[in-house]
Specification:
heterodimer, A: mainly alpha, 3 domains, five-stranded parallel sheet, B: Rossmann fold, Zinc Finger, Delta Prime, domain 3, 2 domains, six-stranded parallel sheet, about 55% helix
């Protein structure tokens, strides 16, 4: 077994935190890949055949909950495949192969990510062409598809043939939250590597080491983000994100009547919209200016008729992106609320586990006293329903309102007869 | 570019074509049919053609779509023929015309052929605006405004006007009933008028209208929501069926219900003068007053239940349930019966 499985991950695997078993599998595969290449060069045939059986293949599916580091793991694997230092196990993290692949500048590593809700066929067709090119540096052509769960039936089936039988030195790395989220036909053609939720301590350690966050803040952020690495980092570094989270967590106590619940729900959706707008507005303007320059229409307020179609297409794309970022922001808020009620339940049941929202202990205890465990379960169900509805394109405001109504404290008196 | 001759009209003077009634369009070198209402444009075109045919039975008519226009075609159609026959060129969809069309028409309008009537149909928008401006400046040009009739009163006028032209009499009640039943589409309304004239004798009464168009009501999502919030389950259901039969999509009904209930909830949570409240909540004062009247019959629990039911219906309509229409009907009934509880 390689050292990566037991000891602290090293080299390119350093940022893949808390994923010992997965890293072991990928590292072994990278070693096998190296010996296969070497055999191609005509040396150590027998050894290579053995190593190859241990596991290099042409299509991989990395799954794990959001924020567990799927794309980081995919990049690390791509880097290990391109590691040029033959004296150590692949993935030294120091050679130019490792460094360029990790930085996303390696010529033979293509990362496809989408900012829309779906990956369309037009998006994946260029990937197939890329996959059929020989690697320019003679090692592997790696195509990473983040969010493979967003492939729809058409685009998934377009990739099928290429994933099943790519050229000899091409490797597909697909990332998705869950095996079930990926088209069955794609799933059956990939080798599956599951990632798990990393322990909060590992995430905190990563924040300290990589982002220079101080230990107390790192601990708080990792816990509050429920080990979602990206969000933990944002919480740790962005004051605005911490304020928004606090506002979100205050929603249940503000919803003390039907009317207040509806108003609070409206504000929550508005905050999500604003967050999305803040994240995209500046980019939208820059992109539009760049397009106008490219079309030779720089400086004109309204695009000339001949290029209007292209401008409109860009605007449609931006609208789709804004929509997704709004849903994402809202979903994130709902996850925060789930964490809050999880804590309430922990207190109500007297379980001896740590709170996710340690900083909100007073609020958690107040909610726990004011309601029964039964109420809490009902509320958790309501939040989950709202998340499902959001994913199903229900009007966001309506879905959140229906959820917030469950936070309204029961009036004393007969109410359970409904 | 140097000009050989001085322009006939000073460019600064505001120019306007003679406005014409769609039912009485005079012959002119150029006739503009501007505005989105196709039915009025159809009427105007037929009245123009009838007049031209009365003058010359050998009228030559050319129909073209501006979108597919190729440079130079206009010269072929509009040039005077050997025997000096009258001709009419009808250009449809000028709002989607390309540069070639705009250029040719502008050139042609500088010196229009005396034996040709050019009819330009433009549904609105800024494209090919130049054609309209140039055409309006042509001496004797005629423009027919084809604006949609928005107010019910205008539609009633329209019905009564077509009755007058058909030399028939119609009760005011009858006209109102007809507009209620078919008011959304002017073409349908006109066709119904013709049909009523053909099928009845004497003065047309509300009874006649009910006999032929009685089963039909044009309902919107808001009508359904109003009926449900006011507690009329039966009427709300009937309106919902009418709405879906006349093409209102379920999503719109859900949105109307949700917005009506949301207003109730928000208004119910606040105290104070309606004008202040209206400003704070971003609504019109009458909405606040109406919500307050409704709230006398709505308890907080009932409101919560209604909103939950509508959210569930929205999910079902968007594909989470087996039958969106049924889920919506159920939500409407839930809302209507929750009132007063």
């Amino acid at each position: 077994m390689s050292a990566a499985a037991t000891a602290e991950p090293q080299g390119v695997w350093r940022d893949v935190v808390g994923q010992g078993p997965a890293v072991a599998v990928l590292a072994a595969a990278a070693a096998a890949a190296r010996s296969r290449l070497a055999r191609g060069g005509g040396t150590t045939q027998a050894a290579a055949a053995g190593a190859e059986a241990a596991g290099m293949t042409h299509a991989w599916l990395l799954t794990g909950p959001p924020g567990s580091g799927r794309s980081t793991a995919a990049r690390a694997f791509a880097a290990a495949l391109h590691c040029e230092d033959d004296t150590a196990p692949p993935g030294c993290g120091r050679c130019s192969g490792c460094r360029t692949a990790l930085a996303g500048t390696h010529a033979d590593v293509d990362v496809f990510a989408t900012e829309h809700t779906q990956i369309r066929r037009e998006d994946v067709e260029p990937l197939i062409a890329v996959a059929h090119r020989r690697p320019s540096l003679g090692r592997w052509r790696v195509v990473v598809v983040e969010d493979a769960d967003r492939l729809n039936e058409t685009s998934g089936n377009t990739l099928l043939k290429s994933i099943e039988e790519p050229p000899e030195q091409t490797v597909w790395l697909l990332c998705a939250p869950n095996v079930d989220d990926v088209l069955r036909t794609i799933r059956s053609r990939c080798r599956h590597v599951p990632l798990r939720v990393p322990p909060a301590s590992a995430v905190a350690e990563l924040l300290q080491r990589r982002d220079g966050v101080d230990p107390a803040m790192a601990e708080f952020a990792a816990r509050a983000a429920q080990s979602h690495i990206g969000f933990a980092r944002r919480l740790a570094r962005d004051e605005g994100a911490r304020i928004r989270r606090r506002d979100v967590l205050r929603l249940p106590s503000r919803a003390d009547g039907v009317g207040r619940a509806v108003i609070a729900a409206g504000e929550l959706v508005e905050v999500a919209q604003e967050e999305a707008k803040a994240a995209t507005a500046e980019r939208d303007a820059t992109e539009r200016a760049a397009l106008m320059r490219a079309l030779g229409a720089e400086g004109s307020a309204t695009p000339p008729p001949a290029v209007r179609a292209q401008v409109r297409q860009l605007e449609d794309d931006q609208k789709r992106r804004a929509r997704r970022s709004q849903t994402d922001a809202l979903d994130r808020a709902l996850v925060d609320l789930l964490g809050l009620f999880r804590d309430v339940l922990v207190v109500q049941l007297g379980a001896a586990v740590e709170l996710v929202n340690g900083d909100q202990r007073a609020e958690v205890e107040r909610l726990a006293r004011a309601s029964s465990a039964e109420d809490t379960m009902r509320r958790i169900d309501a939040i989950r329903t709202a998340r499902t509805r959001l994913a199903g394109n229900v009007a966001p405001l309506l879905a959140v309102e229906a959820m917030a109504l469950e936070f309204v404290p029961a009036r004393p008196g007969p109410r359970g007869d409904r | 570019m140097p000009r050989a001759t001085a322009p006939r009209t000073a460019p600064t003077r505001p120019v306007a074509a003679t406005a014409a009634d769609p039912h009485d369009v005079p012959a002119a070198p150029v006739v503009l049919l501007t505005g989105p209402e196709d039915h009025l444009a159809d009427i105007a075109l037929s009245s123009l053609l009838a007049r031209l045919r009365a003058q010359d039975a050998q009228l030559e008519r050319t129909d073209v779509a501006a979108a597919g226009y190729l440079a130079g075609q206009l010269a072929t159609w509009a040039s005077p023929s050997l025997f000096d026959e009258r001709s009419v060129v009808v250009v449809d969809g000028a709002e989607a015309a390309g540069d070639a069309f705009v250029g040719d028409v502008t050139a042609y309008l500088a010196d229009p052929s005396p034996s040709t009537v050019l009819v330009v149909r433009h549904r609105g928008g800024n494209r090919a605006r130049k054609v309209l401006e140039t055409a309006r400046a042509v001496p004797g040009a005629v423009e027919v405004a084809c604006q949609p009739l928005k107010r019910d009163q205008d539609k009633i006028e329209f019905v009564l006007g077509s009755m007058r032209r058909a030399r028939r009499r119609m009760d005011a009640d009858a006209a109102r009933a007809l507009v209620d039943a078919l008011g959304n589409e002017l073409g349908e309304l006109a066709a119904a008028c013709d049909q009523l004239c053909a099928d009845t004798e004497g003065t047309i009464t509300a009874e006649d209208v009910r006999r032929y168009h009685g089963g039909r009501v044009e309902a919107t999502g808001f009508d359904v929501a109003d009926a449900a919030v006011e507690g009329h389950a039966g009427r709300a259901l009937a309106l919902l069926r009418h709405a879906s039969a006349t093409g209102v999509v379920p999503v719109l009904v859900v949105a109307a219900l949700a917005s009506r209930l949301r207003t109730l909830a928000k208004v119910g949570a606040e105290r104070g003068r309606s004008a202040d409240l209206a400003r704070d909540l971003g609504m019109a004062p009458w909405q606040v007053d109406r919500a307050r009247r409704d709230l006398q019959h709505w308890s907080a629990e009932a409101l919560g239940e209604a909103i939950r039911a509508v959210a569930q219906a929205d999910a079902a309509v968007k594909g989470a349930g087996p039958d969106g229409d049924f889920a919506l009907e159920r939500a409407v009934v839930t809302v209507a019966t929750a009132r007063g509880r």
